[in-house]
Design brief:
Blueprint: H1 13-53, H2 68-97, H3 116-154, E1 162-167, E2 170-180, E3 183-188, E4 191-196, E5 202-206
Amino acid sequence: MSGPLLPGPAPTAAQVRRARSLRRALERELGRVREVAVAWRNGLGALLAGLIGFGLIRGRSDVGQLAPGWSVAAGVMLVAALSVGAVGAFCLLRAAHGRPYARRLSATGDATGRPVEVEDHDEALASARVLRAGITLTCLCTVLLVTAVGVTWYAPPRDPPGLMIRQGTTTLCGEVVSVRRGKVVVKIDGVAMTVDLSRAESVTPVASCPVASSGAG
């Protein structure tokens, strides 16, 4: 059975006030999210710029001074920090300024027929999600950066270059301390030894001494 639609009961004053309040909240929602995103973007950017620019995060200027494994770890963390920071910065920009697109409007709403308020609400929710992701990624970038610099501070340095000296069946290898009058002082296992170069069969500079550097061959 079909018939004309009958009008429903008239809304109460409280319902009208709630509807108007909801409409105002929807109209302001996207703007509030944008303002919060801009504030977070500026704050996090200033924090990172302050840490880096004022030297609060600084380690060895040359990671090549670290032991081989530690230098690789520091390099990987620095690359990860840059990658995560770049994605975090993109998310903050996306939340603060939105997507680069133009919305096509019609008499009833956008091109899909949805009201503009609904589209703005969806955009506000998406911007809030992206903002949370950007904050998390930027904080992770800071942690990775601090960790990488901490590695450059506290990681063991690479072994200093040494000198391998062969005298008959004996092979000595150690860090050069001093050279004078045909003799060289080398430090082997923390002990300084004086070696007469005139009696040496061969003298070879090496990047690092082997573990058993002072053993007799």
